[in-house]
Amino acid sequence: MANNEESRGLKSLFDWFANRRKSGSTSLERQEREIADGLWHKCSKCSVLAYTKDLKANQMVCVECGHHNRVDSDERIRQLIDHNTWKPMDEHLRPTDPLEFRDRKLYSDRLRETQDKIGLIDAVRTGLGQINGLPIALGVMDFRFMGGSMGSVVGERLTRMIEQATQRRYPVVIVCTSGGARMQEGMLSLMQMAKISAALQRHKDARLLYIPVLTNPTTGGVTASFAMLGDIILAEPKATIGFAGRRVIEQTLREKLPENFQTAEDLLQHGFVDDIVPRTQLKNTLAQLIALHQPVLTTPHMVLWETMSLTSTAAE
Length: 316
Hints:
Elements: H1 2-36, E1 40-42, E2 49-51, H2 52-57, H3 73-80, E3 87-89, H4 107-118, E4 124-131, E5 134-141, H5 152-168, E6 172-178, H6 186-205, E7 210-218, H7 220-223, E8 234-235, H8 246-253, H9 264-269, E9 275-276, H10 279-292, H11 300-315
Parallel strand pairs: 5-6, 6-7, 7-8, 8-9
Antiparallel strand pairs: 1-2, 3-4, 4-5
């Protein structure tokens, strides 16, 4: 009799644990389903759950640890450009496949799939707008499109934007995020480095401002060209910035690199970056820099007053 009671007690205890596990898995599934629905966001650094709406209000920066989550080009434009002032440029330019490149799949098929998936034609968006009422030309790279790789369309769009800014005497801001040159376009991709750099040199010769903003990650041919040609180079906290990858460098040198190697903080310490600006302060910082570097215009009234003053002085 006692053995039967003990066995029933053990059985009920096992059932209790089984029900606990079952309810726990159900709640976990429910939690994962809610996260998947976009209601909550789990920080990849500190694992804190944040309400997605609150996270977006803080420009996708974790309020707990300050981690800067990657944002797409649409969100970046909304964060920087004044409402109803954005005028996109050269959206009709589309990439082609002149080399008929093929890896695991045709480059043309890869382009089409990516375009259908994220709704962009290529890895950069360019246009004119205003930051706190100040006109600028803005280029925003999008890492979702083949790792933000720099192909012919990226180079052509950025070059046309810079030339338009030079003509209008606007400052240029480019938000960089890229894995580098697009290998599927070979030499045509590498040529974009020189083309954009030449346009920036003409912009500089016109005594106009250019500010690149380096976000995570900025690597390869983008770092080797327009990302490092700014009059003032800004970066987001903890952004990975470099040319070759960390693993490639370690294998080449056969040495273990420091933990903070190729971070924005390390580059700031060594003089490659002028300042690290949190995303929540980026718009106001850009506006202040642009305002400080605006050319002083002499109005007709000032010229007339100076002429009259000189004439009166000469008469005396």
